Amino acid sequence: MIVCLRTVAIPPHERTRYLAWIAEGRPVREAHGLLAELVLEPAAGDGDTMVVTIWPSQEVFDAWIATPERDALTASDVHRSVDYRPITRYEIAGGYLNMAGLAVQPDTFPTTEASS
């Protein structure tokens, strides 16, 4: 598995639309192998946002990058409204996810319906 980390500067007036864009693109990203996507904002409220994605392999991620579906997502006004920094790829060397613990947490992520 690999983790991709990217810093994103989101103008404050675009935050809601950007989070909705992430949620709306979930089905197509998952259909191409995405395992997880997290948008992290600084707890202090200042600084750039981080986007973390988890993929099964370098090959699956590279295949996603080359798809017309990704091109369609990145051609959107919302995608063009933020400043993306380069993606850094990391191999997972260790650690764990507490899947049982995650399963009992309420889903507090914005949904496309709530963000529309």
Q: How would you describe this structure to a colleague?
A:
With 116 residues, the chain is α+β, with helices and mostly antiparallel strands. The protein has a single domain, classed as Alpha-Beta Plaits, CATH 3.30.70. 39% of the residues lie in helices and 22% in strands. The protein has 6 helices and 5 strands. The protein has helices at 15-31, 58-65, 68-74, 77-80, 99-103, 112-115; strands at 2-9, 36-40, 49-55, 83-84, 88-91. Strands 1, 2, 3, 4 and 5 form a 5-stranded antiparallel beta sheet that branches. Strand 2 (36-40) and strand 3 form a beta hairpin. Mean pLDDT is 88; it is low at 112-116.
Structural class: alpha+beta
Query: Beta-sheet strand percentage?
Result: 15-25%
Mean pLDDT: 88
Supply Rg.
Answer: 15 Å
CATH architecture designation: 2-Layer Sandwich
The count of DSSP E runs of length 2 or more, i.e. the number of strands, is 5
**Which stretches of 5+ consecutive residues score pLDDT under 50?**
112-116
Give the termini separation: 33 Å
Helix percentage = 25-40%
Quaternary structure annotation: single chain
Q: Fill in the CATH topology.
A: Alpha-Beta Plaits
Largest sheet features: 5 strands, antiparallel
Determine the number of helices (DSSP H or I, runs of at least 4 residues): 6
Give the SSE order as H and E letters: EHEEHHHEEHH
CATH class: Alpha Beta
- Please tell me the total number of domains: 1
